[in-house]
Amino acid sequence: MSGILVLGAGMVAGPLVRYLLDQDFEVKVASRTISKAEKLVEGYPKGSAESLDVEKPDAEKKLEELISSSDLAVSLLPYIHHVMVAKLCIKHKKNMVTTSYVSDAMRALDEDAKKAGIIIINESGVDPGIDHMSAMRIIHKVEEEGGKVISFKSTTGALPAQESNNNPFGYKFSWAPKGVLLASRNAAKWLEDGKEVSIPGEQLFENYYIQDVPSVGAFENYPNRNSIPYKEVYGLSDAKTVYRGTFRNVGWCETLRCIVALGWLADEPVENFTGGTYGELTGKLIGAGSSDNIVNDVAAFLGLKPYSAAIKRLNWLGLFSDEPLPADKNNPLDYLNVLTLKKMSMDKKDKDMIVMLHEFVAEFPDKKEYITSTLLDYGIPGGDTSVARTVGLPAAIAVKMVLQGKIDLIGVHIPTKPEIYNPILDELEEIGIRFLENRIPI
User: Fold this and answer.
1) What is the pLDDT of residues 122-141, one digit of tens each?
2) 255-343 has which fold?
3) Structure pTM?
4) I want to staple 165 with a disulfide (CB 3.0 to 4.6 A). Which of 10, 27, 160, 250 is the partner?
5) From the candidates 58, 104, 127, 267, which is the catalytic residue?
């Protein structure tokens, strides 16, 4: 066996790499920053590190060499590179696992993967990933009991634990900040009582509600991308409501709506901007020029009072400040990414948490039930974050199952089949990542 190639050594790679090494697999970690890869495999005789920058023009040649000499590739790279990895895996008949959403381009490789006799498992992290697995387990259970799901809602939040929730945004980055910011531009669709609801990206944060999660707290719940395909993906032919959402602490949506409205998520350079500070760029974005009172000008632009909580948060973040813009960036999104990473990163002593809530209305021949399934998982201060554990471990278990021949499917898949999700969920329960189910008669 040539071993496993892990592409990427970022914030969620640690638990995955260590799990596979502890299972006595050979693991090679390839990363742009080789020191990160070396740290992940330190102390493991079967671990090795390789330098690889997929952004370089000649990267594909080196990537092909690495894939061809491995048994399976795990791509933890930014999602835009997954298809390139997948095509090389198909060419060399190597299996592949990712934790990212299946793109249309990836889905289009299904027949090629089948011809090559390989499996490409996507969406094997937490959201997407554990959410699919845990939802499908209950959906199939309801069907086995002779019932049908007529309403389905699933919401997940990656948040600071209560004791580490000590900034006014109620949020800390336990994964790539730019990914969080980019997700803030997504449009959303879902099915509500048989009607399709569609929200453009710029109005995403205007469409949220407050939801209490028992034993955890109250959160804002806003829609996550396009939920409608999951009616078919999950086999919910009888469901009139199909909704997938995101949890954030109260105040997030209003504040992010302000950031969107100000133009701070634009990824192109601002024309004719000659200033050099965050405050000056904010002034330029709202057409205020070199304002003497940027706080009042921004409040007026947004239709808020200067003392409003959202304005206070923007001020705390530094969007009105004299802090110099980073010289190696050239657009608002990248400037904001630097600032949020500086102000809202997880400290070593901080603890994060994953909150996932599934809500089903199930109809049986003689009764109707409201079923909830809740996951609450905490990170380890000074150790792995909950995000890293819940993204990396299910993917690692999937890798083990493929290499041990316990999954005989081929083609492009997500973990919605019992032969994939049951062993993964069972092992996660042994690790301590488990759901609490509750059924209430209606």
Assistant:
1) 999 999 999 999 999 999 99
2) Domain 3, Saccharopine reductase (1.10.1870)
3) 0.93
4) 160
5) 127
